[in-house]
Amino acid sequence: MANFAHLVSLALEGSIRNRPTVAETTGGFRFLFCNSMSCDRLALEPAKRANRDLADPLTGIVRGHRRRANGFVAPDRSNSAVYNCIRSSTSATGGTTVRQEERQSEPALRVAAAQAEFDAGVTYLNTASLGLPPRRSLVALQQALNDWREGHANPSDYDRPVAAARTSYAGLVGVDPSAVAVGSQVSVFAGLVAAALPDPSEVLTVQGEFTSLVFPFLAQVGRGVRVREVPLENLADAVTARTVLVAVSAVQSADGRLVDLDALVEACAATRTRILLDTTQAVGWLPICAGRFAYTTGGGYKWLLAPRGTCFFTVQPDLMDELVPNNAGWYAGDKPWASIYGGPLRLARDARRFDVSPAWQSWVAQDPALSLLTEVGRDTLHAHALGLANRFRAAVDLPEGDSAIVSLDPGPDIDQWLDRAGIVASVRAGRIRLAFHINNTKDDADRAAEALAGQVRP
Ligand SMILES: Cc1ncc(COP(=O)(O)O)c(C=O)c1O
Q1: What span, in angstroms and rounded, lies between the C-alpha atoms of 343 and 57?
Q2: Do the beta carbons of residue 194 and residue 213 sit within 8 Å?
Q3: Which residue's C-alpha comes closest to atom 11 of ligand 1?
Q4: 249: Cβ below 6 Å to ligand 1?
Q5: What pTM value is reported for the model?
Q6: What is the distance in A from the centroid of ligand 1 to the CA of 393?
Q7: Hey, what domains does the chain have and what are their CATH numbers?
Q8: 186 C-alpha vs ligand 1 centroid, how far in Å?
Q9: 1 C-alpha to center of ligand 1: Å?
Q10: How far is CA 123 from CA 330, 389, 444, 451, in A?
Q11: Distance from the CA of 66 to the center of ligand 1, in angstroms?
Q12: What is residue 375's three-state secondary structure?
């Protein structure tokens, strides 16, 4: 196996060249040093500080804990970023490649192939509310519905799409599938984290955060959990030694603003504060390295193009034992089909112990949708969505932005203007919200700009 110094030098090289670097080892393992957005720093910073044998070469898991005065076990995060964005593509657990795109066709061809699978009869800019399914998801779902109707559906048949979706999702966010749990709602996973907080605890969040990430913590105030809400731009500065957890969405649902994740991670590292990152409005267009955060959770029915009923949760492996699997049912069992009756407790050893039994048909459609997103590749998804959002912004005289969601102050009668132009968007917090995703084209951006020019303000 290549020695660690060699891998570190490749990570540095990748960052300098501003492109991902793949290192192949003699053992047949392939490591990826990704550097899109904040991933750059992830690969580089820990590499600078690296001493020997930081991470398990296969899972990338860094061992080591320090105990905090309050009894909350704080993992040694000094090198944690090493495993966040280094991942074996030949994982023993059968994980898919993080960046399949590197061995695939040109980005434009991949985008065109993906777009051929969508069929909206309108200019659909509403993925932030509800994503559209690609054709392959409809085909799979239709088949599953027919099988069900004709009496051929078997509950255990649904295990395959759930497992495949878990693996694809793990690839998209750069962690091992063993760190991913599945469920149906964000609020359920937020509740899991909330229930594990020591009391008293301070939870920091942002003003106007999506409720599913706030209510689970507010519901705990009776036992000494305090929720502090601050403006998004002050989040990193508001972290103090008393802050046990920051619960925040990577991309704000109301207006698409992005959290400065690098600043937040840095602030939290200094105070040993954990982060629960809601990725619902991010993963699918914004590259996120889930392993950077204690916990992440994201619903599948928007940017992951699934029907309602799929959700993912990631947890850093060394934090797993601190979470009580409050929602454990038969599907959280080590071998679910062998543990459907009675005790003793025999939970999965990995993050599957946090699984909530799946809404079957939703997963049938989620799996192919994730395969489409994986085929396009997360850098291409990002460039495409942001490119369209900025094309629209330029056409309506707005400065360039960093989000695939554009939020605007609507003039009067905006609904009529949208209707007349055949544009589907949403209004949130009194502002019009346009979301650009892989199903959208330059024509969509241009049509929206033409319809809205003069009707909206920043
Ligand atoms: C940021 C964010 N988190 C979570 C959700 C959905 O939460 P839940 O799965 O609990 O319904 C949404 C839906 O709009 C969202 O925008």
Answers
A1: 36
A2: no
A3: 185
A4: yes
A5: 0.81
A6: 26
A7: 4-86 (no CATH), 155-375 (3.40.640.10)
A8: 6
A9: 43
A10: 43, 14, 6, 11
A11: 33
A12: helix
CA 309 – CA 301 distance, rounded (Å):
7
318 lines ligand 1 (CB under 6 A): no
What single-letter amino acid sits at 304?
A: L
Q: Is the C-beta atom of 278 inside 6 A of ligand 1?
A: yes
Q: In degrees rounded to 5, what are phi and psi of residue 150?
A: -90, 5
- Give the integer Cα–Cα distance in Å for 323 and 314: 12
Of 158, 15, 31, which Cα lies nearest the Cα of 86?
31
Q: Is 212 in the pocket of ligand 1 (CB under 6 A)?
A: yes
Candidate of 253, 257, 428 to mutate for ligand 1, largest count of ligand atoms within 8 Å of Cβ: 253
User: Would you say the CB of residue 183 lies under 6 angstroms from ligand 1?
Assistant: no
CA of 306 to the centre of ligand 1 (A): 14
What does residue 457 show for φ and ψ, rounded to 5 degrees?
A: -130, 160
Distance of CA 59 to the CA centre of its chain: 19
Cis peptide before 200 (omega within 30 of 0): yes
DSSP-assigned letters across all residues of 251-270: B-TTT-PBP-HHHHHHHHHH
Cβ of 310 below 6 Å from ligand 1: no
- Which residue from 193, 212, 286, 366 has its CB within 8 A of the most atoms of ligand 1, so it is best to mutate? 212
Any atom of ligand 1 within 6 Å of the Cβ of 127: no
pLDDT in tens, the chain (458 residues): 334 444 444 443 333 333 333 333 333 333 343 333 333 233 323 322 232 223 322 222 223 333 232 223 333 332 232 233 433 332 222 233 344 445 568 999 999 999 999 999 999 999 999 999 999 999 999 999 999 999 999 999 999 999 999 999 999 999 999 999 999 999 999 999 999 999 999 999 999 999 999 999 999 999 999 999 999 999 999 999 999 999 999 999 999 999 999 999 999 999 999 999 999 999 999 999 999 999 999 999 999 999 999 999 999 999 999 999 999 999 999 999 999 999 999 999 999 999 999 999 999 999 999 999 999 999 999 999 999 999 999 999 999 999 999 999 887 788 888 888 999 999 988 899 999 999 999 999 999 999 988 777 78
Sequence-distant (≥ 6) Cβ neighbours of residue 90 within 8 angstroms:
28, 29, 30
- Which ranges in 293-377 belong to alpha helices (H)? 360-376
